[in-house]
Amino acid sequence: MAERRSDIETTVIEVFADIVCPFTHVGLRRFVERRRRDGRDDVVLWVRSWPLELVNGVALAADFVADEIVELRAVAAPDLFRGFSADTFPATSMPALSLVASAYEVSVTVGESVSLAVRDRLFEDGLDVEDPASLRELADRFGVPHSDPDATRARVIADLDEGRARGVIGSPHFFTPRGDFFCPALDVSRDAEGHLHVAADPAAFDAFVDTCFETD
């Protein structure tokens, strides 16, 4: 997929992910850092909705995510999640996902900016991203029109349906011009007792980025 932005042809990398997924926050931030380092602002992210509360039939619990973040900070992302607070973790990510979906209706660059900003609010600032006032402030800051809630929810569900049709296996699942990658920045597993094991995976991340940045 490509978008024309001014006189630059933009490559769009699709990502199916949830706002509340800490592994997605790591993957998106690592991608943005590499893009900045390599000077590839012609490659942008279309972060589509993969609402885990609908996929799993139950919303992620704050203490469950807090435990994942402890592990992530210990072994893979000590620079992230500095302001995270389980006390402000949202009971649902649907309002935030709806805002991001509306932002992508403006443009892919506005959508990406809002997608990153709402995750920063949750994971770096410890703010409640379910709070309507907070979401309205983000919408106004980035020039996102206030949309009908039913219409924006329909866009979230449409993403979920398309993700299922395309074989999305979890959050985050990236689709590049040359293939798809599940959580490429991290090696994530759980043992027989359900204990989480996480490690950075530089080789997998490099392979993923190469498919994003390659040119014909």
Describe this structure in words.
The chain is of the alpha+beta class. Helices cover 48% and strands 18% of the residues. The chain has helices at 22-38, 52-55, 62-75, 94-106, 108-123, 132-142, 149-165, 202-213; strands spanning 2-5, 8-17, 43-49, 173-176, 179-182, 186-190, 196-200. Strands 1, 2, 3, 4 and 5 form a five-stranded mixed beta sheet that branches. The protein has a two-stranded antiparallel sheet with strand order 6-7. The chain is globular, with a radius of gyration of 16 Å. The chain starts with a strand and ends with a helix. Mean pLDDT is 93; it is low at 1-7.
Summary of the model, kept short:
By secondary structure, this protein is of the alpha+beta class. The chain has a single domain (2-213), classed as Glutaredoxin (3-Layer(aba) Sandwich), CATH 3.40.30.10. The protein has eight helices and seven strands.
* Annotation, overall tally of beta strands: 7
- Report the total helices: 8
Q: How many structurally independent domains?
A: 1
Q: SSE order in H/E notation?
A: EEHEHHHHHHEEEEH
Portion in strands:
15-25%
CATH topology: Glutaredoxin
How would the blueprint of this fold be written?
Blueprint: E1 2-5, E2 8-17, H1 22-38, E3 43-49, H2 52-55, H3 62-75, H4 94-106, H5 108-123, H6 132-142, H7 149-165, E4 173-176, E5 179-182, E6 186-190, E7 196-200, H8 202-213
Parallel strand pairs: 2-3
Antiparallel strand pairs: 1-2, 2-4, 4-5, 6-7
Helix pairs in contact: 1-5, 4-5, 4-6, 4-7, 5-6
